Each structure stands twice: as structure tokens, then as C-alpha cells.
Amino acid sequence: MAGEPAFVGLISLRRELISSRLHSRWNWARSCRMCTSPDSSATKVASSKGNKSGTGEKSKDAGSGEFRGARLAKLDQMREAGVQPFAYECPAAQPAASIQQAYSYLAAGEESEDGNELVVAGRIYLRRVFGKLAFFTVKDDSGSIQLYCEKKKVEENMGDGSFKTLKAFLDTGDIVTAKGVAKRTEKGELSINISEYSVLTKALQPLPDKFHGFTDIEKRYRQRHLDLICNESSKSALRARSRIVSRIRRYLEDRDFIEMETPVFHAQAGGAEAKPFETYHNSLERQLILRIATELHLKRLIVGGFERIFEVGRVFRNEGISTRHNPEFTSLELYQAYADYNDMMDLTEDLICDAAVNVMGSTELEYQGTSISLSKPWQRVSMHELVEEKLGSSVRSFSSVDDLRKAAIDAGVGGVVEGVDTTGELVAKIFEELCEAELVQPTFVTDYPKEVSPLAKPHRALDGLTERFELYIVGRETANAFSELTDPIDQRERFEAQARKKEAGDEEACGVDEDFLAALEQGMPPTGGLGIGIDRLVMLLTNSASIRDVIAFPALRSIE
Question: Is the pTM of this model over 0.70?
Fold first, then answer.
């Protein structure tokens, strides 16, 4: 409630912690009883007495065969001692961050006197072992907290030899649970002064060296599990991705859009210009491809009577890999009947701003050292205007394609325009080479040539152009939208033009989709359609330099 005193919230949180004591001491003992026993053979294991290292093991690369062999030997010793190294269950634990908040008032050297016994569970990140004291920093999904392990207290509750077992068996990387009371050490570290502990999972591999960390980019992508364990920034990016996608869904559902699911296997590539992945269905005895877009099936649903639909789906394109491209990526496509590309511009602006504010907290962002403002309204400019600014004259003033090509070469475009034989394609090439990179702040580039927009409706006022826009931010395409083409005759002609390009060797051109044309002939209402690359949007909002940083398991080249 607004204006509620801070101490009221603190009292409520402490009450929650106290009420969470769902397990009695007997239940705790039951879950831990196999951890150690007074006559345990664990006492035969080196206790690392006096070892102050973070790992308890000499520095080597994570994954060392020597390390693994030592831990396998320790695993056998644990089993011989009656310790279960891979537990079946864990008592209910409180998040470390909640404990940190609830007991932030403790002064250095002070121990909580509220009688609340806390239970924590997490992975050991730091290990420091002395004679009668040991310290373990454990992390859960919310944060970290230190376990303060005093021999006298541990053995009073778990029996003689239990502290020696703790020192002998617990290593960095292990997942443990412990029970105790909150205490702030003399050095000011909030800790759990533990009375009992239990191994939940014994790690057979150590964590990377705590001082050098896990920083090799290639290894981070290939061993994502280790990257997430070691680098909180990697977890933060994936958490933000989840929240962004969730917020987009909520935004659309609040505006009466319905989420749909369409097939991943297609008989005919369509909805984009890209080389597809090919596969074969044995039972159907059919050659199929993985979808390169969700567009055509979604528009068939619009024909069927749905008026506001969207899909957040994986699409697959057999193309290059870069910091901006992954062959398997996530797109948002949405379609709204009785709308056009102007409505889509308004929706795009509002949707992205909503995600930025609700997930990242602001429309003012920093991306790789550049300040980006998502504050509305965003610039709207036609492709012809941008190209004409670079050429110094109107596109329509050139009497032939060859004249336009010469002007493009003179402007510095170079060889990419060789072999391009239409005005529209030349304009698009000039834009890509000379204009894209300069569009740093959010910019809607509108009115694309018909030759590069086979699914967009012809512009209602400008001959040879279409009602299409792309959104550019930091020089990258972030969204693509049309007033959707609803004329089945025009659509067939454009498909056939694409098919001719495909027959001539263009691997990215599409063929004629007869199923979609049949649906279109049934009649589709005026419709606005929008596609947003989720991965690039997440890159922008999380300040991530590479698309690999925002995909949990990106495509990588094989290691020979």
C-alpha cells in the first residue's frame, strides 16, 4: 500500500520466513540422516584442514580429468560412509535474497534472536576451510548467502565427526542445503550460522577458477550451463528475454489478439525470401521444408474469420551465422483485420515502448555505448527520400535502370548493384548499402518498391511502391509490416515472378503457394500485418552485442 512504513513491510517479510518453517526437526533429520554418522568412514578422507582456497583444489582448468578422477574417488568414499551424494528431495528453502532483505538490520557480530530457523539450498561457489570454522558461499536463483559453519554447533546437532565430514566432502560446484539462524559476521557478511547440512548433488567437475572466471566467448556458448553458473549477466539476459516475450503476449491479449500455432513443416516456402532447410517425412512420403515464416498460415486464419491473431514462433532459415543472424530464431507475427500499415506503425511503437518500460524500466536505453530514445513519436521517412538524399536527385528522374546503377556506383555502392535489373531492386540495394547503418534512433522506413515486397498491397497513391515499412534501430531491421495484399490475381502474378527467379537459380526466392491463393480467392478483409524479430528486440533492450547472448543455445560450428 502506498505510504506504508518500511518497517511494516520488513515485519511482514519476517513473518513469511517464520511461517515457512513447514518441516519439523524430525523431518529435517529424516532428509539429512544419511549425510553423516559418528563412525563414518568419511573421517578417513583428507579434511583439507587449514585450506583457505576458494575451491579446495589446486588451480586447474574446469573439466580436468585429474579433478574428475579425484571427485569420483570422493563419491565412492561418500557412499561407503553412508552419504547419499544425489538426494531425492530437499526441505523447503527460503530464497537467499529474501533472507538478505529480512535480516539487513543485523549489525556486525550480531546473531538473530527471533528464533527463526532458516533453510537455504544452492550451489557452492566459494569455499574457505580453517581448523574449527568453514565458510561456504552458496547461490540460488535469487542471489547468494554465506554458510557460517562452526564445528561445535554442527557436531552438537549432527554428531561427532560431522564437521570433519563437511570439510572432507563439500567442494565448489556441489549443491547443498543447510539449516540455521541468521548471523552477521564480524567482517559484516550476512550468513547462516548452520546447525545441520546435507549434500543434495555432488558435482563431478569443479567450477572455473574464481579469479579468472569463465570468459572464453566460444566456450561460454558451447557450455551454456557453465556460462549460466558463472556469469550472472548471461542469466539476466535470458530472464529479460522471458519477461519481454511474456509482456508482448500480455499486451496483445489485452487488446483482444488471440495466440495461434501454425505448422513448422511446410510443403512450400513462403512469407519471406530465404533458403529453407529441407527434410523428408517417411510416413507421408513427402519432401517438406522447415518454415521460413509463419505468415501465410496466419493470413489463412484471417480469411477464416479471426480478426486479431498472433504467433510467437520459431522459424528456420538456411543462411549465414553472424552477431545478428542465427538460422533458428523467434519471430512475432500478428495480423489485424480492417487495419493498414499506418495502424501497424502505431501498434509497433506502442508495443515496443510498453515492453521497454515494463521490463527494463525506461524508454531511454544504452546500446553498446550509444544512447537510444524510444520516446514517441518515432521518425517516419520513405525509402525513396533516404536514397534520394544520398544520390542528390530524385529516383524518378533517371530515365533508365542503367543510369540509376551508374549513379549508385558513383555514390559508392559498388559491385552489389551489378546484375540488378529493376529500379525497385536497385533502390533497395542503395538503401541497404548507404542508409541502413545511419538509422540509429527508431525510424520507420516506409513505401518499399513493389519488386522487393511480394506480399504487400500496392501503395494507394504512389505507383510502383507498396504500403510497407521496416523499423530500424541502431542500424538494424527490427520490424517489418504491410498493408497486406488481398488481391488474389495480383498475388498470383507476384508468386509467379518469384517462381521464375527461383527457376533461374535464386535459392531465396519462393514458389507459388496454391493453398494460400485458394484461401485468398475466398476473400480476405483489408488487413495490417506485422513481424518483429524477438531476438533482435531482446538484444536492443538488454544491451547485448550478439544474438548468441540472448539465445540459450545458439547454432555453432562443429569442432573437428
Answer: yes
